Amino acid sequence: xxxxxxxxxxxxEGDVYKETKRMWRLFERKYNSRVIQNxxxxxxxxxxxxxxxxxxxxxxxRKLSAxxxxxxxxxxxxxxxxKPDPAxxxxxxxxxxxxxxxxxxxxxxxxxxxxxxxxxxPQNWHPHVTLxxxxxxxxxFQEAKKxxxxxxxxxxxxxxxxxxxxxxxxxxxxIYKKYVLE
Length: 182
Description:
The chain is α+β, with helices and mostly antiparallel strands. Helices cover 31% and strands 36% of the residues.
């Protein structure tokens, strides 16, 4: 059976969605960084992995989603990762609810995937909304950090979905199924 790369994310909505898209365009235009747009929806990532049966994950993620109510997310400011590749992101505040949901998603993927993403394991996971990553060269990374010194985004909003995403190839990631939280 063919191995499939999958992920679980929440798609952002409203003003934070629009602001993230605006920032993606800025990073593409000014810093020649567009890899994050391989998945065209601003999002918060929970976990990903390699599996053989995406339908099994779909069935179980649908059940998990049915047990999760919409939850509050707060974004406060900009931050960066240096490794494994330079990245710039909006900082998501780690509320009480967020790690609990993450742990449940991680457990589900641990059960049905042959491997999961190490950087998104509960001990390593840093909730964030990526603005630029992977193709952001070091000089552009430093320039963007300086340019964004006075940029302090602040948002508070309800997340109303979990999505199962699938990599169709390295440069094409799409929503496989969207589950509405009620």
